[in-house]
Structures
1.
Amino acid sequence: MAEGPWTTEVRYVTGAHKSEAPKAEACRPAHKRSASGTRTALRAAAAFRFGKYGYEGTSVRDIAGDVGVDAALVYRYFGSKEALFNDVSGTGKIFEPLLNEPVEAIPDWFCALLMGPPREGDFPHPVLSVLRSSGRDEAVARLRADFTEVFSQRLAARLGGPDADLRAELLAAWMLGTSLMRSEIRPPALASAPDATVERYLRAGIDVLLCPAPEDTDGTARAGDEGHCIGDN
Amino acid sequence: MAEGPWTTEVRYVTGAHKSEAPKAEACRPAHKRSASGTRTALRAAAAFRFGKYGYEGTSVRDIAGDVGVDAALVYRYFGSKEALFNDVSGTGKIFEPLLNEPVEAIPDWFCALLMGPPREGDFPHPVLSVLRSSGRDEAVARLRADFTEVFSQRLAARLGGPDADLRAELLAAWMLGTSLMRSEIRPPALASAPDATVERYLRAGIDVLLCPAPEDTDGTARAGDEGHCIGDN
DNA sequence: AACACAAGTCAACGATTGATGACATAGGTC
DNA sequence: GACCTATGTCATCAATCGTTGACTTGTGTT
């Protein structure tokens, strides 16, 4: 009774060979065999572990253990560890809503994404999953493709103004840095300051990139002449 | 002759069990036994591999192979793989010069650091060495301590104005994001845009954090009333 | 109740890993 | 040239890794 995983509903809570509980066992109909349920549970556990410990720092047995299942199932369902990694890695369309948002709402959208709970279930940063797993070159390439499509192309097209692609990419950099700083490095002020205060400086940085200063050859840049400025509410 | 590593000067170029040449064999007096030389060469190879592949993605044999030396020497000189990692990980005082710089020169200093060659010898980002090696909790803690001391404390004290610590940390975030974006994700515009253009937007973001808008309770923030603005040349 | 197939387990493989201790050799000193 | 010590090598261990194929067990159907 104590060993058998299928006898009770709390079987998910077992496992966790390393340091931390997995927390994200997803929708798996308890005490009932379900291939799709196990698949999604494995995906969730894999996303968590790959994000937190990286590709090399995560073993297939760890992932399977989180779900309370034998490691062999990973190979039945996904073929290989690398295939599972490729399946769960990537930005996962979290930037898609941004593209359907009116341009004026972009600062708010970014602030909401950055200031919200780190991620549901204490999930690690999705970009970290790739950053922590070099050289999974394929994953890095796909991450670059994701960023390029969303920011350099689609968002840039909607921003307009000079250097729209560069500004969009710097916006992504500003987001990435703030997000990593907040969720991983966790310096004291960023962790303790009231959200409204952080958001104010955050928004100021976003505005700078959304409302570019006009091109200036001799170095003296002034603000807000060209480029349709937005979100000055 | 072909196998013996000490017979010629180019022995460093051998090794490199994985994908990429190490490039950083540092100062090791060729064809002469030197403990200190081997130590520093091991340190350099370790810093490179840990930064590029992370802690778990790097084997002791890889590091020793880069230097052209047996893996056992790593244990003689550093005790363990983890001790070697702790020895070479960290920001390595690259932010120290910032603290000796006059405040007005900070934007220039940041721009120079960010826009310069990624790192000498194609070296990976020092923060990545830690970010890619979770959960080396000790290294993460030291990285946080580094950032806290340099930015949240010493730099913040010199910045002055409201939320100086928070602004300094956000400055670090802005740097981190831009740096990671440039060196790892490498989106197209950021890679191809002329340095002067990138620098202009970069500086605008820095200025926003160095010259804070005054605290404002009802949300309407104006620029440049309080807080000694600098670097407006 | 018997059957059949899907879902999950088990034992084992070859390779690689971090780590250790016994051994070999270079190079300066007398 | 003999010798000694620092320096580097070698063989090897136990543990863990990704992966595989044969096996067991649950569950819905007839």
Note: Residues 1-27, 217-228 of chain A have pLDDT under 50 and may be disordered.
2.
Amino acid sequence: MRPIGQRRTTIKDVAEAAEVGVATVSRVLSGTGSASAETREKVLAVAARLDYRPSALGRNLRRRRTGGIGLLVPDITDVFYGRLADGVLSCARSAGEPVMIGTTGDDPEREAHLIGTLIEEGLDRVIAVPSGDGEMWVPALRSGLGVVFAERPVRGAEHVPSVVTDDRTGVRTAVEYLAGLGHRRIALLARHGQAQRVRAFREALAARAVPVDEELIVHAHATRDSAYAAAAGLLQHRSDITALVAGGNLLGEAAVLAARELDVRVPRDVSLIMFDDVPWAELCHPPLTVISQPAQDMGYRAAELVLREGRRARTVTLPTELIVRASCGPRR
Amino acid sequence: MRPIGQRRTTIKDVAEAAEVGVATVSRVLSGTGSASAETREKVLAVAARLDYRPSALGRNLRRRRTGGIGLLVPDITDVFYGRLADGVLSCARSAGEPVMIGTTGDDPEREAHLIGTLIEEGLDRVIAVPSGDGEMWVPALRSGLGVVFAERPVRGAEHVPSVVTDDRTGVRTAVEYLAGLGHRRIALLARHGQAQRVRAFREALAARAVPVDEELIVHAHATRDSAYAAAAGLLQHRSDITALVAGGNLLGEAAVLAARELDVRVPRDVSLIMFDDVPWAELCHPPLTVISQPAQDMGYRAAELVLREGRRARTVTLPTELIVRASCGPRR
DNA sequence: GCCGGATGTGGATACGTTTTCATGAATCTC
DNA sequence: GAGATTCATGAAAACGTATCCACATCCGGC
């Protein structure tokens, strides 16, 4: 496809033009090893004149690894993961590393397939939001792949560095806030895999001496349809609830939609708190009270972690923040 | 980092174990060339037994190109580009191609830098939402890079395949709809670079014999701050407008926010139409009437185009759709 | 029975880089 | 001043694959 004779200029061309060996050119350009000032200058001048750019292909093969980092998220359409990806890209850019991205759709099988592709490509550093129980990571981890988990911890992989939000505190803050307003029948809308938040939810209720009604803990898959079905089912079937915690912006969206559809008024009939401070939370009617999660930071920190490959495994827990708007009121 | 002795199994290992030459293994596995049924079977069996995965590194170097496609978008945080990326990823996945992503921040310089990185990595197929006037693409195009532009056409690069929305019709539909409601002082909030939409806006007004007030065409950069400043300035300074078209979801968000801040009621005081049918448009108060753009399709089609490298350059124009909700009313 | 073509096969080469190693020169040490 | 140490340098060897080419074999046709 490339015009004939338009061959890329290689290190060999530079070496010949500068009348030195290829090894010298490589050393000068990569900054490793020693070279006399005179030689260095000559090589740099020639390289600039020929507009030489070292080919990552050759380098990668030689080093037996591709530079750059792999990024696996469930759904790039979800603003939360969009921000997370943005954080990763931001850090990767300042480190000069390219990023290869893939979406898992929260499907462990698809995720396993993507891991295979990444390994095939020679990627050896990956940031992933693991789906399922994360068991498909075991062989990859054993083979020496540098992995950092984001958003969700993986049980039994505590030796793998992770960046997560402080779910426990976040959920407790939400529950305490609602309980403080007098609510006792509080429901939780959770995504499959948010076991941590469910556990924290139970604990927070128990701490307030509110009996846990298991029927008020509803699970959904990470799709709009599933989320809507769960929210609608809950609001329809249990009209006695007075408050609702949505474990993510997709679930919150579904809750708002379902409430509107069923003519359940927020916050008069039911108070609503959502995880994720997405832009539309403020535009919504009423503006949504949220538990904000630092998605972008999460991505940035994960990228930092995966790039410092020498360090010890460390789990970073980022704080959440309650942002009060207008979707919660006193118990009716 | 990889455990010692844990060397990857290479094509050579397979060849030895199957008692054939490496060339034969390569032929069998890549499906090219001829091989006897017996040999083929043996090779496949051995490859499976050894869990052999061909290294993309070696292949890429040999082929002098990296498989996979590069994707350059202004801001992955913007739902529109999130969807576009999702479309690209979807098509790329079914073609088995990895995707390397980068965000330009709408900065031509940053974009040029990213192009350089992509070329260095050996990528030879790129989908890009070009920023600025797209002049930094000239050398890349000349060097034989397979480029497809998405969302925005580049003037003077009509020979480059592109996938865009039918801006002209979209804008006209919006203006006609508003004019039909009796509005004559219609403002346009546009991002820098949306010259096409601005032109279409002027034409649509002219077609309705509405004089064009240049002051009602306001430009903003692709950031929340800039969008808000533009929207607030417009609403504050020109309280005589009765309708507003926002050229993107960021601008629409800013318009809603600014209107709320300035106590301008929608649609009573001013009618609002936004480009992009994002999920929150329905959750907003009032629900926003929008010109929907098929962002995901756009990404998918762009990926298709960039993968069929034999074809002629072709510009695909995708239709828009007016979705009427509740943010427009008759002229007050 | 000989020849032309098709078919299967493996050795060898090239892709562009980094890194090791040997060599020679220069500088230092006592 | 001789030996030891540092330094600059380039030739050569990988890295793992795809492909060119030569060779051998087989087959059908005359």
Note: Chain A has a mean pLDDT of 93.
